[in-house]
Amino acid sequence: MAFDYSKAGVDVQKVKGMHAQIDELLRATHSKDVLPIYGHYAGLLKCGKQLLAIHTDGVGTKVLVAQRLRKFDTVGIDCVAMNVNDIICVGARPVALVDYLALEKEDAALTAELMKGLVAGAKEAGVSIVGGETAIMGDVIKGEPGCTGFDLAATCMGVVESGKPITGEKMKAGDAVVGLESSGVHSNGLTLARKVLTEEKWQRELLVPTRIYVKPVLEMFAKLDVHGLAHITGGAFSKLSRIADRAGVGIALENLPEPQPVFAEIQCVAKLNEREMYRTFNMGVGTCVVLPEKQADACIAIAKRHGAKAQIVGKVTGKPGIFLNQTSLID
User: Fold this and answer.
1) Which of 126, 159, 192 is the last residue of a domain?
2) Is residue 75 a contact partner of residue 153, using CB atoms and an 8 Å limit?
3) Cα separations (Å) of 192 from 94, 198, 205, 240, 247?
4) pLDDT tens digits, residue range 54-90?
5) Are 81 and 231 in contact, with CB atoms under 8 Å apart?
């Protein structure tokens, strides 16, 4: 029997339903300065003449893998990456971040290792960590046996320097979808992956930090006509609907790269079909950039210059939906 994401404890459809309820309630708080781009990767609001983006995220159950292996120096990189990679999806340059660290008990050595990762990630992304909060919550936070439990999250702010956000509305049939290589599993799907990959060598693969795409993407903003950007995280490639739906178009994925070996191991052990894998994991592609087909080669060259492999993985079509080799990834 296949051990899919819902059996592991995460029902994506129920989560989407929760998000819809939350969004409806939160809209009652919005002033005229909030841009109505609901369900995107970051919120947008006007502040004087500036257009700001804001987003908050953590690293999920990857913290449990770190605790199990007693390796904490890369988790902070993931925390930064999960925030800045979402911020750039609305056309913003990340500028500042604050972190939130919840601990089971005081643990100076653990905290120092986590901060190493945060600093490394912030330097890579070009953001300043301007503050944060540390909370000791032994009654709430529980860790792996013999290890101090913790959770790490952050909030990031960015600036849309052009004043014109990238939402996906400019996408049109014929546009190319360029996929930028991931560094591995990143920080999504870990609830499933850590339960099926029990060998230490595969557990260590799960701790490879999330790739940060800020530098290549900012260069793309400056030199190319980017129509849409999608960070492939929870929900994996089905998340492309966040940008495609805004233009009433669809995306056909027909040329995805060979995934890293860790994905084949997950698929084998969990007995998952191809559709479930591409709805749960990034499968080797961490970010998708949508732009005119004639600019695809320039996009790939920019990614390569920044050390990230890239290739055309699909195209925009007039048929709504997200399709993997003609199979719909949307329920």
Assistant:
1) 159
2) no
3) 30, 11, 14, 21, 33
4) 999 999 999 999 999 999 999 999 999 999 999 999 9
5) no
Estimate to the nearest angstrom the gap between the alpha carbon of 303 and the chain centroid. Answer: 17
Our count of domains for the chain comes to 2
Torsions phi, psi of 85, nearest 5? -65, -25
Domain with 155, as residue range(s), is 31-159
Predicted model pTM: 0.93
Domain of 77, CATH number, reads: 3.30.1330.10
For the cut 70, the answer to whether the pLDDT of residue 49 exceeds it is: yes
H-helix or E-strand spanning residue 311? strand 310-317
Q: How far apart are CA 277 and CA 235, in angstroms?
A: 10
Return phi, psi of residue 181, to 5°: -60, 140
State the amino acid at position 170 in one-letter form.
K
Taking only Cα atoms into account, the Rg of the chain, rounded to an integer number of angstroms, comes to 19
Q: If we measure between CA atoms, which residue out of 136, 132, 137, 135 comes closest to residue 155?
A: 132
